Amino acid sequence: MAIDFTLAPEHEEIRLRVREFVRDTIIPAVEPFGEDRHGAVRDEYLRVIIGLRGKARELGLWLPHMPEEWGGMGLGHVALAMVQSEAAKTRLGPWILNCAAPDEGNMHTLLHWGTDEQKDKYLRPLLAGTVMSCFAMTEPEVAGSDPTLIRTHAVKDGDEWVINGHKWFISNARRAGFAILMARTETDVAEGTRGATTAFLVDLPQRGWDDVREVETMHGSTGHSEIVITDLRLPDGQILGGRGNGHRLGQYRLGPARLAHCMRWISQAETALDMMVDRALKRYSHGSLLADKQGVQWLIADSAMELYQCKLMVLHAASKIDKGEDFRTEVSMAKHFVAGSLNRIVDRAIQVHGALGYSTDTPLASMFQHARWARFADGADEIHQMRIAERTIAAYRATGSTSAATGGLPL
C-alpha cells in the first residue's frame, strides 16, 4: 500500500526538535513582554527575538522550506506541514525559523523566477535573515481577488519604467528592504485577461514609493501598509520573471503559500481545541463539569472532526505538490475549509470559556481577530468556491465523472 500517514524517522525527529524549541525556548523568552513592546522595552524585545533566530540556525531549524544548497533544510511540503504547524504554536515561531509570510513566498518566487544577479542581491539576504520583504499586489480601487484588474501601471521611458499606482494591505512594507511590485505594462491586453502585468523588484526606501499609513485592522496596526506610487523609476533589470509574466508569477507564488497558511492555521485551531477541552474539564456548573454536558460535547466533537479533515486535506494537497501533480483544486479546497474551520473552532472555544474567552485574559480573543482575515486572505472563500466548481464541472465534461475534482483518490 502506498498510503502511509506516518513520518519518516528523520522527519519525526525534526518535528520533536521544533516542538521542544517552541515550547521550551521561544514561548518562555517572549511571554514576559506580553503586548507591551514599545520604547526601551521594544529594543530589548527585538534583541531577544533576533537572538532566537540565531538559536534556530544553530539548531539546524532555519529555512525548513528551502533547498539545502541554499542553506535550508530541504523539506518537501508534507514534511514542511509538520514544521509549520509546530512552529505556529506561537505567532512568532515561523518568523524565528525564517519561514513566515510574506518572506517565505517571496523566497520561493525569487528562487524560481530570479536571475543570478537578482538572487545574489535579493534572495541571499532574505535567506540570511538580514532583510525582510513585501509583495505589493492588492489595490483599493479593484477587487483584490482578481489580480487581472490591477491599475498600477508602468510605462516605458527609454531604458526605464515609470510606475504610478496605489496599493494597500501590503504586509511587512514598513519593515521591508525590498518589494515585489505588480504593475500593468501591456496596454494591448484587455482588462480582465492574463498577460498584462509584470513583476518589478523595488529597493526600499526609494523615491516615488510613499508608505502613507499603516491600515488599522480588527487586531490593530500590525504592518499592513497603504502605498502611493508616484513616478517611481526602475530600469529593465528590475523586472522579475520576464515582462508580461506577472500573473503567472503571482499564481505560482500564491498556490504553495496558501497551503503554508493552512499549516499554521491548523496549529492555531488545535490550540483552541486544547483550550476548549481543558476548560470543559475544569469548569463546574449546574451539577457537573462542562465536559459532561452534551451541548459542550457536541462543540468538542464538531471541532475534532473538522480538525481531522483539515489535517487530511493539507497533507494530501502537500503530497500532490511534492509529486509535481496539479494541486490547484486541492489547495483551493484546503484553503477554504481550513480558514472556515479555524474561525469556527476558535469561536466554539470562546463559547466554552464564556466571558473569560471574550476577555484578553486568554489568547482566544486575539486568535479570533486574527482568524477572521483567513477567509479572504490569498483569495476569498467565494473565489475558491467558484474555482472549485469550475474544475468540478470541467472534470465531469471531460471524463463523465467528478472524481478527478475530488482529489483523484482511490476510493
Automatic annotation (TrEMBL):
Every Acyl-CoA oxidase/dehydrogenase middle domain range: 134-229
Organism: Sphaerisporangium aureirubrum
Residue spans crossing the bilayer: none
Broadest EC class assigned to this enzyme: oxidoreductase
Subunit structure: Homodimer.
Domain annotation Acyl-CoA dehydrogenase/oxidase C-terminal: ranges: 244-391
Taxon lineage: Bacteria, Bacillati, Actinomycetota, Actinomycetes, Streptosporangiales
Cofactor: FAD
EC number: 1.-.-.-
Name by which UniProt lists this protein: Acyl-CoA dehydrogenase family protein
